Amino acid sequence: MSIRYRLAGCLFFFAAFVACTDWDDFKKYQAGGEIVYPGKGDTVLIASGRDRMQLLWVLSADPRVTKYKLYWNNRADSLEAPVPADVIGDTMKVMIEPLPEGSYNFEMFSMDALGNISVPLRFNGRTFGTNYEMGLLNRSIGATSYDDSLKILEVQWNEPDTVNVSTELKYIGIDSKTKSVMVGPAASASHVKDWKPGTILSYRSSFKPDRKAIDVFITTKYDTLSVNLK
């Protein structure tokens, strides 16, 4: 019987020791008061550009938030700015430039007046530049025809790339001056009423990397086409 009492006493002492140790360890992390984490932002909408990036950040509704800090390049680069009280819970527009062409991983933190920071909001994005632009190809022309009686040149366009914004068609007018018309991606044909027969057509296209992009990219050169008159 005494052995059981001794064993129970040892277990009780050990449990009490562990409990006190855990509590003491916990108190170490509570030194200076309770840890406070300001509310982190909810969502970041990314708009890519030419060597730059625009972020639309949906802010936390936490009224303690006074500023934010953004890191990228493994925290080698950062940006910090205040959060006005009247936009708490709303959105903020952040422009990062210059930001050389490439892909980036970001960490964004909310901060309060006491220096407490939120858990990170992580996201990634990409910027575009010369390398992207050099790889672009002009929307192509499928066929051309000239109605000599009506004096109208018809240009039939092939289907554009999904990120095509427009195509500029340059031509020489009957007054021998260089003129141009802009062709949207939805247009399948262009009709030019003052083209000077026998002259060359030139064209080049513009693109956005995606529908939210803030900059337009243009092919590096015009393509040319001679119209076959029958």
How is the secondary structure organized here?
Layout lengths: L1 H28 L13 E6 L4 E6 L6 E8 L4 E6 L8 E6 L5 E11 L8 E7 L2 H5 L6 E7 L4 E6 L6 E9 L5 E6 L5 E4 L8 E7 L9 E2 L4 E3 L5
Give the beta-strand count.
15
User: Low-confidence parts, pLDDT < 50 over ≥5 residues?
Assistant: 1-31
Distance from first to last alpha carbon: 118 Å
Based on secondary structure, the structural category is mainly beta
Architecture of the largest domain, according to CATH?
Sandwich
Number of domains: 2
* Tally of separate helices: 2
Report the sheet with the most strands, covering strand number, pairing sense and barrel closure. Answer: 5 strands, antiparallel
| Helix coverage percent | 10-25%
Mean pLDDT: 88
Strand content: 35-45%
Structure description:
The chain has helices at residues 2-29, 130-134, and strands spanning 43-48, 53-58, 65-72, 77-82, 91-96, 102-112, 121-127, 141-147, 152-157, 164-172, 178-183, 189-192, 201-207, 217-218, 223-225. With 230 residues, it is mostly beta strands. It folds into 2 domains: 43-127, Immunoglobulin-like (Sandwich), CATH 2.60.40.10; 133-225, Immunoglobulin-like. Strands 10, 11, 13, 14 and 15 form a 5-stranded antiparallel beta sheet that branches. A hairpin with an 8-residue loop joins strand 6 and strand 7 (121-127). It is elongated. The N and C termini lie far apart (118 Å). The model is unreliable at 1-31 (pLDDT under 50).
